Amino acid sequence: MDIKKVVTWVLAIFVLYTIITQPAKAADFVLIGFQGVSDAARGIGAFMTELVS
Q1: Measured CA distances, 17 to 8, 10, 25, 32, 42 (Å)
Q2: In 3D, which of 6, 5, 29 has the Cα closest to residue 17?
Q3: Which of 7-36 are b and which e, b meaning 16 or more Cβ less than 10 Å from the residue's Cβ?
Q4: Please, are residues 18 and 26 in contact by the beta-carbon 8 Å criterion?
Q5: How far is it, in rounded angstroms, from Cα 28 to Cα 33?
Q6: S-S: 19 plus which of 8, 26, 35, 44, CB 3.0-4.6 Å?
Q7: How many Cα atoms are found within 13 Å in the side-chain-facing hemisphere of 30?
Q8: What separation in angstroms does the CA of 47 have from each of 13, 34, 35, 38, 44?
């Protein structure tokens, strides 16, 4: 079995377990993830703005 498949399955099972057993905590994880993506996009936008000006 490919190690990448094993890691993917373990991660998927962990995510499902967390969602089922602790939905509020899972929602917090999603919020943190989206906040990180938003901050990264904002940083890239600021970098590009400074690069162009």
Answers
A1: 14, 10, 11, 18, 32
A2: 29
A3: eeeeeeeeeeeeeeeeeeebeeeeeeeeee
A4: yes
A5: 9
A6: 26
A7: 10
A8: 38, 20, 18, 14, 5
Place of tokens 């499902």: 16
pLDDT tens sequence across 4-52 = 999 999 999 998 998 899 999 888 988 999 999 999 999 999 999 999 9
Tokens (6 digits) for 21: 């057993």
Q: Which two tokens stand for residue 3?
A: 């190690």
At 1 the three-state DSSP class reads coil
